């Protein structure tokens, strides 16, 4: 099979490797596609503690496709089942996953791409956010996660203030239900606008979905006394500083909303499947750019550079 290998920073090669064989508790998935995650960008750029080349298919963890082989212990999944998987070498024609880490896709989703891991991530962040009807929720950063969270928070009865750099991102937030949008250009102007919109009370919930220092600083300013600051951004490029004086004075809860418990991750995927299949969430407008496996480097560059109209890239494998 074909598999993409990160052979050096900024360099992808396509290797011809043996297809993986499932262990007794695993299934093999003939992949239809795999989403490109912003967490891929640090290894793509090159980090001091990384080694190269990486594993075949190794950056891909947002795959979906059709099971074509099952391990000896599997009795609830069969070849032909279409699934989303929590697996980790999915920039390839096939990947294996533990049977406990795949979720069946219902017929309502036939023909639709379904990167289950990032959708599940959004649902798990939403659950950890504990958003209640009538609350004001600021979401900083309207990319894929921010857009999905905007819809979920709005459906929960919250008033969403979306804050993002690009006008097209703010337009996307409106599409997904944001009541207010603020361009992310001037730190103090944003604070003043949120004060005006909340009569000085600020926001019961703030979700930071960028993964950089300034948005984290801004989140601490926008959170209300006794509120919950939810860190959904992927802060993996170095240490951060926080205004502990401000956080302490306000008495806020701070939630790092990235899940590492596989069962919890899968719960989010299943919740996402149910929401999309029922029509409660339509993620199709978020899948803006599609690439072949040979174009994975271009997909990573687009994820980094965000050309006009970009939200999320998918690498299509079949």
From TrEMBL:
Keywords: Metal-binding, Oxidoreductase, Zinc. One of its GO terms (molecular function) is oxidoreductase activity, acting on the CH-OH group of donors, NAD or NADP as acceptor. Residues 7-315 form the Enoyl reductase (ER) domain. Pfam families: ADH_N, ADH_zinc_N. The keyword Zinc applies. The keyword Zinc applies. SUPFAM superfamilies: GroES-like, NAD(P)-binding Rossmann-fold domains. Its cofactor is Zn(2+). It comes from the Bacteria. InterPro entries: ADH-like_C (IPR013149), ADH-like_N (IPR013154), ADH_Zn_CS (IPR002328), ER (IPR020843), GroES-like_sf (IPR011032), NAD(P)-bd_dom_sf (IPR036291), Zn_alcohol_dh (IPR050129). Belongs to the zinc-containing alcohol dehydrogenase family. PANTHER family: L-THREONINE 3-DEHYDROGENASE. This is Threonine dehydrogenase.
